[in-house]
Design goal:
The structure holds two protein chains of two kinds. Chain A is an all-alpha fold. Helix content of chain A is about 60%, strand content about 0%. Classes of the chains: A mainly alpha, B mainly alpha.
């Protein structure tokens, strides 16, 4: 995070934070959008087969996305952290 | 192994009860001890009592939010729904609790920043500051309180299911029957009063550890002793012959499944108790990191949901002590049926403690809303932080007492109906809050009218739904107007809300109706540091001095 002396005369000691670049926000946004889309397409995954260890596709697909969504969200977190560190 | 509780009216399950009491004593000690844990100089402010000093790191926040969002009622109701009618009414909880985290990742850091900078304690505080409208803030606050109250009551329903399985309750004198519940809630109320948000934060460690242990053991047991193939096949066979049963959503229920998942996810983080959990985090990074690691709980919830199917295979009885079938007994009865008493006791302790954590946080959140957005706003404009904390502490007692009366005095179907309505209602605050995090375009009065229209539509639509045992509030699904597709009522109401708010905003802007003042600045929304004035006031409170201005 960047701290610079503020030019705002009313709140002089308030640290100024710059918003992240649009490309960073877009990348993080796409990473977060993927799990939302994957679970929004109900007709695509509402199927019995192929089964995996006895789990119908409908069930293991959603269990799989617990892990994938966590992974994508973590990547978005890293992208933003990296950009913030670069700003410093 | 113990026999099924059904039919043995007098048998109290001693070992199970002993284990539950042991863990209850442990968390009671923890709850009272919590006042000393990570303590600030003084508990005499809402920042300390109601938000735990706004200083929780990633690990505490993980336990706190996990303990907060995944409630005892969830643990009891989701498998019960799977057992009764399958995927559409039960398993939607899994995509729901997956998609909620990317959404939290996107919206909540902004809410955290603007709240931290301006000293907001509740979501209604933000609405007040952003739109300069205490009426709109009142609408948001009242919606939050009304939606939270039945949710607290349902935590008691979770405890009741466990007590019933252990042979307590059922017939006899009402006072003796309900005494364990009253004691549990009185103790909870006492340590929440003294320790504030620190109590559930500390107890959540015990709760979540127990829950994880129980679920892992249960799922391994199912995998070894039954096998998932047989569990799913048993469920498939049952759902084929069940009216409204669904093993896998069909073309008729795709929209129902999707809107339940996404509507519930959007509603979840509008609940005051989730906002309280998020605002107690020490910085934005804690929230984002937790959005990535909290899905561990969703995995656990999914596995727990499968226990509803396993109970179908095991032909678990759901007949309660009163001789009537009650679907919510399915998970406690399943544990009672297949596990040794001591382990069933651990599972019951997990559910019972699982009720205490969210009940505590919900009552704190509701109390904060009342104090900040009703009491202070309309009755005591010059209330000091100490005065606010004192009011909140008392209101948290009143709220819990109200929930107790609700459950003991009324048919618990009422609590379930109101919780269903609560989900529909709370989603209608999202427009004021989340849209407000990004834009001031929407007009405060347009938002108010949109909110009112959506509340009215949602309540009416839910009232119209007949269920198998009830004439009204029988389902959270209704046909979308003009189609024959069933969708989650909350989502239809949100569409009403958005349309009304946008159209009226355009009209009000044309008519140059005063839009109110906005006390937030653009950089409030991505800042990590509190405004100097807030930091200064907090420091004054910590050192015990009266703040210069409030």
């Amino acid at each position: 995070m960047t701290s610079e002396p503020s030019s705002d005369p009313i709140r002089p000691s308030r640290p100024v934070v710059r918003p992240l670049p649009a490309s960073t926000m877009a990348l993080a946004g796409v990473l977060l959008l993927i799990p939302l889309v994957a679970l929004a397409i109900v007709p695509v995954y509402a199927k019995d087969g192929p089964r995996l260890w006895g789990f119908p596709f409908f069930y293991w697909y959603q269990f799989l996305w617990v892990f994938l969504a966590s992974g994508f969200t973590y990547c978005a977190h890293m992208v933003i952290n990296h950009a913030r560190r670069g700003q410093r | 192994m113990t026999a099924l509780a059904a039919g043995t009216h007098t048998g109290v399950h001693g070992v199970e009860l002993g284990v539950v009491i042991f863990f209850f004593l442990v968390v009671t000690f923890g709850g009272f001890f919590a006042v000393r844990w990570r303590r600030g100089e003084s508990m005499k402010s809402l920042d300390e009592w109601g938000l735990g000093g706004r200083g929780f790191g990633s690990v505490i926040t993980w336990f706190l939010l996990g303990g907060d969002l995944y409630t005892a009622y969830t643990f009891v109701a989701v498998p019960a729904a799977m057992f009764a009618t399958g995927a559409v009414s039960g398993f939607f909880a899994v995509p729901y609790t997956i998609v909620v985290y990317p959404l939290i990742f996107i919206f909540m850091p902004r809410l955290w920043s603007v709240s931290h900078r301006n000293g907001y304690v509740t979501p209604a505080d933000f609405v007040r500051g952003r739109y300069g409208s205490r009426t709109l803030a009142l609408a948001v606050a009242v919606t939050g309180i009304v939606a939270t109250m039945p949710y607290i009551a349902l935590q008691l329903v979770g405890i009741q299911a466990v007590l019933d399985t252990m042979g307590l309750g059922g017939s006899g004198n009402w006072f003796l029957r309900d005494l364990p519940l009253i004691i549990a809630f009185a103790v909870l109320a006492a340590y929440t009063y003294s320790s504030g948000l620190r109590a559930p934060a500390l107890i959540a460690f015990v709760k979540d550890t127990l829950i994880y242990l129980v679920i892992v053991v249960a799922i391994v047991w199912v995998a070894i002793n039954i096998g998932f193939g047989d569990v799913f096949n048993a469920a498939q066979t049952k759902m084929k012959s069940t009216p409204n049963g669904s093993f896998i959503p069909s073309s008729k229920t795709f929209w129902a499944y999707g809107t339940l998942a996404f509507g519930s996810a959007l509603a979840l983080f509008m609940y005051p108790h989730s906002v309280t959990g998020v605002l107690s985090a020490k910085d934005r990074t804690v929230i984002r990191r937790n959005a990535a690691i909290l899905p561990t709980y969703s995995l656990m919830l999914g596995l727990l949901a499968l226990l509803g199917f396993a109970a179908i295979y095991e032909k678990t009885s759901v007949v309660g002590l009163d001789g009537k079938p009650n679907g919510q007994l399915v998970v406690p009865h399943f544990f009672d049926q297949v596990f040794p008493s001591w382990f069933a006791g651990v599972a019951f302790a997990a559910i019972a403690i699982g009720a205490l954590v969210p009940a505590a946080i919900m009552s704190i959140a509701a109390a904060n809303l009342f104090t900040r957005n009703i009491y202070r706003e309309f009755f005591a404009r010059d209330a000091s932080p100490a005065h606010e904390a004192a009011v909140s502490k008392i209101v948290s007692l009143v709220v819990k007492f109200g929930a107790l009366v609700f459950v003991l005095g009324m048919d618990k179907q009422n609590a379930i109906n109101f919780q269903l309505l609560g989900g529909v209602w709370i989603l209608q605050t999202i427009l004021s809050i989340v849209a407000g995090l990004y834009t001031r375009w929407l007009h405060r009065w347009a938002l108010l009218v949109g909110w009112a229209a959506a509340m009215a539509y949602g309540t009416w639509a839910a009232y119209q739904q007949a269920g198998p045992t009830t004439k009204h509030f029988g389902s959270s699904l209704a046909t979308f107007p003009g189609t024959d597709t069933k969708v989650y009522i909350a989502v239809t109401a949100l569409v009403v809300n958005i349309v009304v708010s946008v159209v009226l905003t355009a009209l009000f802007r044309l008519g140059k109706v005063p839009a109110g003042s906005d006390e937030t600045t653009p950089d409030d929304y991505y800042s990590d540091a509190a405004a100097p004035s807030v930091a200064h006031a907090a420091a004054e409170v910590q050192s015990g001095a009266e703040p210069a201005s409030t």
